Protein 1
Amino acid sequence: MVLMHARAGLVGEPMKSGFNPLTVASKPRYLGFDLRENLGPAELDVRYFQNRADLLHAFEHVHIARAVCV
């Protein structure tokens, strides 16, 4: 995790936090949030990287979660 944080910072995208994608669903409600999305590499590729000419794709271990206040 530390290496990913450092690498992201080097390209101008500092990581502010991290989470375990297998347990993230149980955490937000406890903190006052409702989990709306938990996207892994396959879902990110479809949403953000499909049909790119430069062949960029989501990193293997990247997940993005979206939650809203309840």
Protein 2
Amino acid sequence: MIDDSDRTWKKHWSALGDLERGGQADVKRVVRSDGTDDTVCFLKILLHQNDPERRRRMYREVAAYRTLEHPRIPKLVHSNTDKFKDSSFKLNVVTEYIPGMTLSQFIAQNGVLDVESCMVMMIGMLEVVQYCHDQEWIHRDIKPDNIVLRKDSPIDPVLVDFGLSFNRAEEDESKTPSLDELGNRFLRLPELSLGSPMKRDPRSDVTFCAGVLLFGLTGITPSILLDENRRLPHQRPTAMQILGAKFAPRPLQRLLTIFDCAFDIDLACRWQSAAELQSAIGRLNQADQTPEDEIAFLRREVDEYRASSVAMSSEENSNILQHAVDELMRVTVELRSRLGPLLVISQTNFQLDPFKARAATSLSVQRTGQSVHDWVRFTFEIVGSEVVVDAQSDGRAEPIHRTSVHQPEYGPSFKLAAETALLRQLQRELAQHRDRFAG
């Protein structure tokens, strides 16, 4: 039998006043209308009651509150979201009321956080995020608007609004279609974009937390991982200026390294868990040590780095790129043996950057004893699951080969393309020589 008293919130609760309206719901401070309890609670009323997807989201949010028990997550008091499939029920949820401003409101009113408060806040945030992940819940909407500072204290953050959350134990009924974009305008992540299959990865929450850290220290919204100049959020001039003024050189370098990893475009190269990022933040302001202690500490850091996903990924990239360059050099050796003693092949400007997954070198075929006037610039770049090889010469660049990262093939087609690029360069060299001689 349906309990009609649950069709609207007004049967159980009396409003004490409206709070700031969100994009998805009206929110109010309320107490029980029957007078049995004067505890102030937080009421959230779904705005778009006729939208099935938003009704499902509120149902998921309540499931998260019901499942998760942590001092930095509001306690569930009451809800009617189990009737989310019945449109006659006006969905609402009542949770513990957390008095205080959101992080966005606090910084707008008081300015950015001091370093110590910001670090303490982030340790607390990462603790609750790791707890959620351990319980197989992913928040997917971590941003300053969804962090309430209890009693306006930056060192006492509470994570709210689980409307976009996902539980790994859920079935497809609660799945957000892969064509939808998730996340928020605070920081748009590529893995949450339209059509991405990676919308249920807990590492996205960790990246959001890094964005909150940057916001807490600088007041700057990161927005996107790479700007028009391919700068990460912390590398942009205003952020660098603010951070440089807040930190001594050594902690600043550690912090920038933390952000380098946190904002990498590749999920596999970012911090792999909230606990991992929390540990890095904890080491940020370590006191200076004796030379012996420092050497031991540095060795531990080296060992940690060697075991980290970033190091393993960069080592793998280095091996893949070096193999591709070696194959090019094998082609040049064979070509040199066929050209005879009157012609030589020169190489210069070799570069290999495993972090950017890119290598390059310049080659030239010329007459023995003559200076080089023309080069062919070969670049090797890991793009997704492939290695792409380009040849740039005479002001033009064109792809000449692409092969699988995992099963690379540098057979006859690669050899022919590389030789063709070099012989075209030789042809231009010889033509210029004839023109000079004729003149």
Protein 3
Amino acid sequence: MAKKTWITILGWFLVVAGVILMPLPGPGLLILLSGLIVLSQEYEWAERRLEPVKEKAIEGAKDSVATYPRIVLTALSATAIVAVGVWVWSDPVVPEIWIVGPELPFGLGGWPTGSTVILSGLIAWGVLIYSIKVYRPVALKERAKSDG
């Protein structure tokens, strides 16, 4: 019973985090997929939804490395995320913008927030490198087929 509870809590945490991170730069779809993988250990409904999400994640990975501009943009974005993490780590005081500032709300900032932002950027770099190695050749083949 305790195992099922922990699997459910972890799975739903990952699913909710993945959904929240979808519009943001980072591995939102992969985190959502991870949550479904965890939930599929205990729930049949999660197992049924696993394959479509996996296909969408692979399609997104192929699209992200199909052209050099996309690779460069992704690399620059991941680097920017790491840079923001370093900035937040080193200086939690931010310029006052609307209701935010001069300190980040709820004690956010400093090394706890900075380290998680840096980790997100490093994960994005890891996913990019993996996608280049695994999906770039596939994307090039598919592009060559459609071109001629």
